[in-house]
Automatic annotation (TrEMBL):
Entry EC no(s): 1.3.1.104
Keywords recorded for this protein, A-Z: Fatty acid biosynthesis, Fatty acid metabolism, Lipid biosynthesis, Lipid metabolism, Mitochondrion, NADP, Oxidoreductase, Transit peptide
Organism: Galeopterus variegatus
One Pfam family, short name: ADH_N
Record-stated family: Belongs to the zinc-containing alcohol dehydrogenase family. Quinone oxidoreductase subfamily.
Protein name: Enoyl-[acyl-carrier-protein] reductase, mitochondrial
Domain Enoyl reductase (ER) as annotated: residue spans: 60-326
Superkingdom assignment: Eukaryota
EC primary class: oxidoreductase
Localization in the cell: Mitochondrion
Lineage per the UniProt record: Eukaryota, Metazoa, Chordata, Craniata, Vertebrata
Recorded name of the encoding gene: MECR
Length: 328
């Protein structure tokens, strides 16, 4: 699943592109070398100067923070996940590649620290998420344009906020945009343990829909099955089971006689076709589900920013059951 958009709004990234040199860099700093008490005008950021293995090309660098202009917002990042799209972008295998050097991270949650004189929609203390992919969220602080951010309620869990802007949005739109599904209808999905898959299970259950979930076989398949069913999955079957003759016949029957359809979806294209207010409405709808206990964050492990190498390595392993979230 490809989720990408135009890169814009990050002043720290612009500084990098103008060739400003960081004060220091390291592939693996000791914990004592990373401190939140650094000079207010400097920030820590995970930067890559060329494409390749994320564990090898990503560096923790100390960068100068840009001044806040009239339409700018200074944001302290609180948490940012490592998504497959982040890995692909660093590898150079993504549908959209930023100019290098670039700060990693397409998603995350931050808190407004200061705003420029022309900013009207945000204030210090507000929680914000990226309006589009490619903002560069793997950094302790940054200065963004107001239009690059979406304000969200601060009364939801931090992990839910950090993972709100991509997978749950994709899941919701896929469920409501293509068919007039009614309570009791069934939805079949593959990769059900992914972030999108877990969101589909929960949102579908909230809408009264049943899900048939296909996953790869693995040593802990029973634990995975139990976890997905606890989220609301109706059925969980493995790809190996799907290859059995009776299952093949079932899906052939659905395809031929029940007009089963396969559709691709790209969230960034949906954003291009809809207004920022409509995206904000989507975000608020998902926040309501979170408050009602009908939508939770995927299984997550919080990792300090300075331990990014370990987090990247885990994110690239097969059958990873926990999303790595960088904390600042």
């Amino acid at each position: 699943m490809w989720v990408c958009s135009a890169l814009r709004g990050a002043r720290t990234l612009a500084q990098l592109q103008r060739g400003l040199l960081p004060a220091s860099s390291s592939h693996g700093p000791a914990a004592s070398s990373y401190s939140s008490s650094a000079e207010p005008s400097r920030v820590w950021a995970l930067v890559y100067g060329h494409h390749g293995d994320p564990a090898k090309v990503v560096e923790l660098k100390n960068l100068e923070l840009a001044a806040v202009g009239g339409s700018d917002v200074r944001v302290k990042m609180l948490a940012a996940p490592i998504n497959p799209s982040d890995i692909n972008m660093i590898q150079g295998n993504y549908g959209l590649l930023p100019k290098l050097p670039a700060v990693g991270g397409n998603e995350g949650i931050g808190q407004v620290v200061a705003v420029g004189s022309s900013v009207t929609g945000l204030k210090p203390g507000d929680w914000v998420i990226p309006a589009n992919a490619g903002l560069g969220t793997w950094q302790t602080e940054a200065v963004f344009s107001e239009e690059a951010l979406i304000g969200i309620p601060s009364d939801i869990p931090l992990q839910s906020a950090a993972t709100l802007g991509v997978n749950p949005c994709t899941a919701y739109r896929m469920l409501v945009d293509f068919e007039q599904l009614q309570p009791g209808d069934s939805v079949i999905q593959n990769a059900s343990n992914s972030g999108v898959g877990q969101a589909v299970i929960q949102i579908a259950a909230a809408l009264g829909l049943r899900t048939i979930n296909v996953v790869r076989d693995r040593p802990d398949i029973q634990n995975l099955t139990d976890r997905l069913k606890n989220l609301g999955a109706e059925h969980v079957i493995t790809e190996e089971e799907l290859r059995k003759p009776e299952m093949k016949n079932l899906f052939k029957s659905l395809l031929i006689f029940k007009d089963l359809k396969l559709r691709g979806f790209w969230l960034s294209q949906w954003k291009k076709d809809h207004s920022p207010d409509q995206f904000k409405e989507l975000i608020l709808t998902l926040c309501d589900l979170i408050r009602q206990g009908q939508l939770t964050a995927p299984a997550c492990s919080e990792v300090p920013l300075q331990e990014y190498q370990h987090a990247l390595e885990i994110s690239m392993k097969p059958f990873t059951s926990s999303k790595q979230i960088l904390t600042m």
